[in-house]
Amino acid sequence: MDLTVPEYAYMFGFLQADGHLSQQSRQRGRLTVEITARDVDLLRRFQKLTPYNSSITERTRSTNFAEVHTSATWALCSLEARTRLNELGLPYGRKSKTIAPPPVEFSRCDYLRGVIDADGSVGYTSKGLPFISLTTASTAIGSYLASYATAITGIERVIKRNTRDSIYNILYWTEAAQALSAHLYYPSCLSLERKRAAADSLTTWVRPPGMRVAPERRRWTAQEDRVLLQVNNDAAAATELGRTEKSCYIRLWRLRTGQISMPTDR
Length: 266
Description:
Shape: globular
Order of helices and strands: HEEHEEHHEEHEHHHHH
Radius of gyration: 22 Å
Distance between the termini: 46 Å
Largest sheet: 4 strands, antiparallel
């Protein structure tokens, strides 16, 4: 499981997001990955990459999303394999909030593609705009994607848990989605075939004439916060900082109510 090898980096990212490690007494346990049966070819690729005995089974049952759903499950029991995966950062039991990028050198592009294939989406919005997104409960994974995507797209994302279920929904659209998906889903990479096809389809999108390009968000600096607190007036601070009165009002209110940390003294 050398994570500098693209296939293993992808596989580990997918397992972190969609796999499950269980353990019992006397060092027994197993790794399982259950996905829709239409993606079973990916499990067969994982099976070939793994030098231990494993099995792939299918079952059909009723779910909350479909009356008839057929899934495929890959199961691996080797203690040596489970130990290696655990050392790299795949915890036993519940893991959604605790997973993080591996503590060793790894192929970052392929690792993130594995995470997105398991817990993300690629395609077009209802309004016909290209997008790529990730849903995760892990702060470490969400922050890593946001940082990596900034280097590729130039777009910054400040991740924040939603109020409904306390997870992160990290979304990129239009040209940023095109750039990120083209980078992650390069030709002949190991991936879910349907998501790679969706990523390929984003390359044909062209911004419609007259569609406004949203300006990049200007981030507040600690020095601007100091000026805002010192001036203590929305209109005066807006003139001095070159910002709108509304943005100064909201920022000052957040500082005063403790929603944003006060700037540290230099």
